[in-house]
Amino acid sequence: SQTIHQWPATLVQPVGSPLSLECTVEGTSNPNLYWYRQAAGRGLQLLFYSVGIGQISSEVPQNLSASRPQDRQFILSSKKLLLSDSGFYLCAWTLGNDYEQYFGPGTRLTVT
Amino acid sequence: RKEVEQDPGPFNVPEGATVAFNCTYSNSASQSFFWYRQDCRKEPKLLMSVYSSGNEDGRFTAQLNRASQYISLLIRDSKLSDSATYLCVVPQGGKLIFGQGTELSVKP
């Protein structure tokens, strides 16, 4: 069966520090991968999605970036965090044209 | 009109009650719809998919009204464990658009 991993589970970082969040999927090949952010009490905001290695689409211009160095690995990065980057970051996957997305456990980021 | 709009919460209901949430969407071309459940501080999990006029799974019934562009979720015989936030989700342009969510609190 397919599983999706995210780490770390929680993270506290100072303003201006770099960020790297990792997401990996097991048990499937060539998934579509997604990064979402959920601010406290808010809905999910799509940040990036990828349909293949090296293919990244950005939904919202900001100081975050994403990379997909391997088929089942998706990385979210920032060179300098802002206070507004605090939130719950969720990675999700789906296959092909299937719209049913499956989420990882998320990373709760607090920027201080 | 927002792409996906849900009933504002929270809904506070006693155990055993029937509760219904509504969700409206703006893209009339959407063909499939989803309800996700999100527990506090957890990731969303798929609850139900709706591809035609509706879907039923035990105590949960989802109905679709294409003419009025809304989807509803009905929960019968509410349990304490149903307490969560329910997210209405509509595919659009190859992506999923999430509603803000409706919080449900089932009380003993």
How is this fold's topology laid out?
The complex is a heterodimer of chains A (112) and B (108).
Chain A: E1 3-7, E2 10-13, E3 19-26, E4 32-38, E5 44-52, E6 55-58, E7 64-70, E8 73-78, E9 87-94, E10 102-103, E11 107-111
Chain B: E1 4-6, E2 11-14, E3 19-25, E4 33-38, E5 44-50, E6 54-57, E7 60-65, E8 70-75, E9 84-92, E10 95-98, E11 102-107
Parallel strand pairs in B: 2-11
Antiparallel strand pairs in B: 1-3, 3-8, 4-5, 4-9, 6-7, 7-8, 9-10, 9-11
Description:
The complex is a heterodimer of chains A (112) and B (108). With 112 residues, chain A is an all-beta fold. In chain A, 0% of the residues lie in helices and 58% in strands. Chain A is built from no helices and eleven strands. Chain A has strands spanning 3-7, 10-13, 19-26, 32-38, 44-52, 55-58, 64-70, 73-78, 87-94, 102-103, 107-111. In chain A, strands 2, 4, 5, 6, 9, 10 and 11 form a seven-stranded mixed beta sheet that branches. In chain A, strands 1-3-8-7 form a four-stranded antiparallel beta sheet, with no helix packed on it. In chain A, strand 4 (32-38) and strand 5 form a beta hairpin. The mean pLDDT of chain A is 92. Chain B is mostly beta strands and 108 residues long. Chain B has no helices and eleven strands. Chain B has strands spanning 4-6, 11-14, 19-25, 33-38, 44-50, 54-57, 60-65, 70-75, 84-92, 95-98, 102-107. In chain B, strands 2, 4, 5, 9, 10 and 11 form a six-stranded mixed beta sheet that branches. Chain B has a five-stranded antiparallel beta sheet with strand order 1-3-8-7-6, with no helix packed on it. Chain B is globular, with a radius of gyration of 13 Å. At the A-B interface, strand 5 and strand 10 of A face strand 5 and strand 10 of B.
